[in-house]
Amino acid sequence: MEPSPSDLELVRGLVAIPSVSGQESRAVGWLVERMRERGYRAGADEAGNAVGEIGDGPRHVVLIGHIDTVPGGIPVSVAGGELVGRGAVDAKGALAAFVSAATEPPPGVRVTVVGAVEEESPTSAGARHRARQPAPDWCVVGEPSGWNGVAIGYKGRLVAEIALERHARHGAAPGPTVAEEALALWGRVADAARAHAAARAFDSLDCRLEGMWTEGDGLAERARLRVGYRIPPGLGPSLVEAGLREAAAGATVAVVAAEEPARSDRTSDLARAFARSIAAAGGKVTFLLKSGTSDMNVLLPAWRCPMVAYGPGDSAYDHTPVERLVLADHARAIAVLRDVLRQAAERPSAASIRATPRPRRTATGRPE
Predict the structure, then answer these.
(1) Fewer CB within 10 A of the end CB, N or C, for the chain?
(2) Nearest-CA neighbor of 38 among 87, 78, 4, 1?
(3) Contact 88, 72 (CB under 8 A)
């Protein structure tokens, strides 16, 4: 199974345009033009997202994948049934699959495809802007899950910087250096996080030292640590921050970014639609809980609608110098998404459900 020539050119062309977080405008403009060629009503929104709408009807489905990537240019090539290039997996492959799958939507469904900016940065500016829009009936977030995998949960995140400062000392003076004091502080922070270990990795609090810097000017010595947490459901960034401040007493703590954990329902009508569509394509669905974060962390608390993350590609290649997408899996993902949209057309919209009058009941509790 291979993508059609037009679908292959769409994903290859999108991957070929560098779009590191904060530098997505060229890729956004290119994708807007490709969507217009396919019949989308397309443009860039106030946040700089590429937004295309197609179809009409009471059912509204949002397909949102991020168009930005991490740094690190990888020469783009198509060979051996694979597309190689930065963003092929995370997550331009999913975004291109969204555009391809919705090009001819079924009657009764309005589809909005969003190429969101800055997902790979702490701002998540694209998703936060879209979260202010009315909630759709269904939302699919573009992330690599494998063509037969569906992600229903992501850990939350807290990124913080810890700063130490003291009077300068001679290098031969007794006692620890400021770098050693910073390392001892990190040990206390890591020990506090280990108190939240659990049998299942998804339920554990992960804590990592992402960087450490020291400097001095002859009057003062300073150390700065950047700490990143992956937060399980039930804990939340505010509780983690409180524990961090306690463990780092005497130092200055500044929060850089924070996102709540996100967990959707595997029995929702959207999740069931994916299970049926994957089965129809010859696979068996696997529901995934991810230790990273995605735009689901931003959108699910805001919209509270059925939501999953889905997209072709092996997430083991995320952010690596060998990022590659199996094109047969890309084609399968497009077929799955088309069938999910077909099923969307067969279900009543949330608005129509809210508008349906409930039967009046008599004093005995029976409907009239």
Answers:
(1) C
(2) 4
(3) no
Q: Of 259, 275, 290, which one is at a domain's C-terminal end?
A: 259
Q: Give yes or no for a contact between 28 and 99, defined as CB atoms under 8 angstroms apart.
A: no
Q: Tokens in use for 176?
A: 């620890």
Which amino acid is it at 100?
S
- Alpha helix ranges (H) inside 85-130: 92-101, 125-130
Same-domain check for residues 249 and 316:
no
* pLDDT (mean) for 340-364: 65
Determine how β-strand 82-84 pairs with β-strand 41-44: unpaired
For residue 365, pLDDT beyond 80: no
Model pLDDT for residues 159-190, shown as the tens digit of each residue? 999 999 988 877 667 778 999 999 999 999 99
- Shortest CA distance to 324 belongs to which of 1, 2, 15, 14? 15
**pLDDT surpassing 90 at residue 356:** no
Please say which residue of 225, 244, 259 terminates a domain.
Answer: 259
Q: For the domain that residue 168 is a member of, what is the CATH number?
A: 3.30.70.360
Q: What are phi and psi of 39, to 5 degrees?
A: 100, 5
Which domain does 210 fall in, by range? 156-259
229 and 161 housed in the same domain: yes
Which residues are CB-contacts of 70 (< 8 A; sequence separation ≥ 6)?
A: 20, 21, 86, 90, 120, 319
**DSSP reduced 3-state for 62:** strand
Question: What pLDDT, on a 0 to 100 scale, did the predictor assign at position 328?
Answer: 97
